[in-house]
Specification:
There is one protein chain. Helix content is 81%, strand content 0%. It is mainly α. It starts with a helix and ends with a helix. It is globular, with a radius of gyration of 23 Å. Helix 5 (109-129) runs antiparallel to helix 6 (133-149).
């Protein structure tokens, strides 16, 4: 009797688990149907809202990586169901790019590289349908990230094209603020033979302010500016300081200081950990 009772109890729990699983699958299906039934405008707005929230959490003084990635995964569900393929590919590429940046920030380089390559694949599909400014800006930014992971062949093949993509983005939309920042970063870090010049970098930021009537740098561009300064200067504090000093052109100095402190702490802590491990 006890044995029969235990079997009956076990069957009850198994049935309960099956019901929970079925309910979960049904709810996911309903959510997917609900997303599919919405208009492209609604899908785009909801997806972009989730992306914006993910970015805000990432650029915060104390970032929440896991929550940012979960929000991006949710945004991708909306973008995947968009009927406007060019817009859908572009938004998926943006989400994948941001996921790559987040994974790179927490030192998950395999995942970062995977997301950057996926972003490149998507933005190429979007641009194949038609030219648009931010498509070329994102194309350049993704390539800039992949250059970090590429070998000499990859750098030689794709590096020189970055400047052309950004210039095309600005030509298509002289008000594209992030394109100016990307071009300034290119001039800042590229070798002289490839057109690199610190003076050109500063001039480009001044052009951004003049052409966009904005004297502030957005937090994501700010993060990229300071983080790449640390990476590409091989953590040379003097060079990093020079890169940050150019940002005196902008009025949101408190945000610049906080971001500089956050990124300096990241690289300082990593250096201390490496020394201790040795």
């Amino acid at each position: 009797m006890r044995k029969a009772g235990k079997i009956s109890q076990n069957l009850y729990f198994v049935k309960k688990i099956i019901m929970v699983v079925i309910f979960s699958v049904v709810m996911v299906g309903i959510n997917c149907i609900d997303i599919y039934a919405q208009s492209d405008v609604t899908k785009s707005k909801k997806g972009e809202t989730l992306c914006s929230q993910a970015m805000e959490l990432f650029v915060a003084t104390t970032p929440d990586f896991d929550k940012s990635l979960k929000l991006l995964d949710k945004s991708i569900l909306y973008f995947m169901e968009m009927e406007d393929k060019q817009s859908g590919y572009y938004r998926l590429a943006k989400a994948a790019y941001l996921k790559g940046v987040i994974e790179k920030d927490r030192n998950h380089h395999d995942k970062a590289k995977e997301n950057f390559f996926y972003s490149k694949e998507l933005i190429l599909k979007s641009l194949a349908i038609g030219d648009f400014s931010d498509g070329y800006r994102l194309r350049a930014d993704v390539e800039g990230q992949l250059i970090f992971y590429g070998d000499i062949y990859y750098k030689t093949r794709f590096g020189p094209g970055i400047r052309n993509f950004i210039k095309k983005a600005i030509a298509l939309d002289p008000g594209n603020k992030r394109a100016y920042v990307s071009l300034a970063m290119y001039y800042r870090d590229a070798p002289m033979i490839a057109g690199g010049s610190f003076k050109k970098s500063e001039t480009t930021l001044k052009e951004m302010i003049d052409n966009t009537f904005s004297d502030q740098i957005d937090l994501f561009s700010l993060y990229l500016w300071i983080d790449t300064a640390w990476i590409n200067s091989e953590k040379d504090r003097e060079k990093v300081s020079d890169c940050i000093s150019v940002l005196n052109l902008f009025t949101n100095q408190r945000e610049i200081i906080l971001m500089a402190q956050r990124i300096e702490k990241k690289y300082t802590d990593r250096t201390i950990r490496i020394i201790k491990n040795h």
